[in-house]
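[step 3/7] inverse_fold.run input=structure_tokens len=94
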């Protein structure tokens, strides 16, 4: 994940301060969690062809328990839960 902060040279100190504050808010585990989500995207695309449905699936899942698991570094558990939820989604939409 990359987050950029710039003041276009007006105040490098404020840009540095904001970067530090943002870094404190983003858990160190997020990199692995985001990588896992990227690896899972193809499964979602294959099983949910509609883009709006894909967006809804991701919003429903990342804003809840799976997001919290990722936030706390429980990436394997997040993968398992995401897999279960994808299967449940498919079963409901047959």
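[step 3/7] decode complete -> sequence:
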């Amino acid at each position: 994940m990359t987050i950029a902060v710039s003041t276009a040279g007006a105040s490098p100190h404020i840009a540095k301060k904001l970067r530090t504050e943002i870094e404190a808010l983003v858990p160190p585990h997020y990199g692995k969690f985001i990588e896992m989500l990227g690896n899972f995207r193809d499964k979602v695309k294959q099983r949910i062809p509609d883009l709006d449905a894909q967006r809804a699936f991701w919003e429903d899942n990342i804003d809840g328990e799976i997001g919290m698991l990722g936030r706390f570094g429980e990436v394997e558990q997040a993968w398992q839960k995401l897999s279960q939820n994808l299967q449940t989604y498919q079963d409901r939409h047959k």
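[step 4/7] annotate
The chain has a mean pLDDT of 92.
The helical segments are 12-25, 30-47, 51-62, 65-71, 75-92.
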